[in-house]
């Protein structure tokens, strides 16, 4: 079952959810900012109600994320823990990787470089992204 939800905020953010046995995969697309964060938060909370064991957020389509977007990710992480659900971030764009590293959130989230890696993972332990080369 695949559902696409469009947000009509100033920036266009799109949420794509697919449920697989024991996995709920949500693809985030567009900008996650102060304009789109409230709607995204609500949609993620609704998706969490249907999630079973693992919630995977596919970040491959995220073009921008600000502090309010990070707050949504931290909030959904807290809620997944309350429900006993494993949260995985998958396929972050280079900008998202940098943002997670700069904020230190790469140590708080389980981050997989690819969606297939997040789906195949059987570990609950954080996966570390490869170190970025020094400029």
**Residues in helices, as a percent range:** 25-40%
Individual helix count: 4
- The strand line-up of the biggest sheet is 1-2-3-4-5-6
Major beta sheet summary: 6 strands, mixed
Distance between the termini: 44 Å
DSSP E strands, number:
6
Strand content: 25-35%
> What are the low-pLDDT stretches, counting only 5+ consecutive residues below 50?
1-12, 125-130
Shape: globular
Order of helices and strands: EEEHEHEHEH
Write down the Rg: 14 Å
Mean pLDDT: 82
Q: Structural class, judged by helices and strands? A: alpha/beta
Structure characteristics:
single chain; 135 residues; alpha/beta; 6 strands; disordered N terminus; globular; 6-stranded mixed beta sheet; 4 helices
Give the arrangement of secondary structure elements.
Elements (H helix, E strand, L loop, with lengths): L1 E5 L6 E8 L2 E10 L4 H14 L3 E12 L1 H17 L2 E5 L3 H10 L6 E3 L2 H6 L15
Parallel strand pairs: 3-4, 4-5, 5-6
Antiparallel strand pairs: 1-2, 2-3
Helix pairs in contact: 1-2
């Amino acid at each position: 079952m695949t559902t696409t939800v469009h947000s009509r905020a100033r920036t266009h953010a799109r949420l794509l959810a697919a449920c697989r046995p024991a996995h709920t995969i949500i693809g985030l697309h567009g900008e996650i900012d102060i304009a789109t964060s409230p709607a995204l938060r609500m949609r993620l909370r609704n998706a969490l109600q249907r999630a079973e064991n693992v919630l995977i957020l596919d970040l491959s389509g995220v073009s921008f994320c600000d502090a309010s977007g990070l707050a949504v990710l931290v909030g959904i992480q807290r809620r997944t823990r309350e429900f006993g659900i494993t949260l995985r971030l998958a396929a972050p764009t280079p900008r998202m990787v940098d943002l997670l590293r700069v904020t230190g959130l790469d140590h708080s989230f389980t981050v997989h470089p690819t969606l297939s890696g997040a789906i195949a993972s059987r570990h609950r332990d954080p996966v570390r992204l490869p170190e970025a080369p020094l400029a």
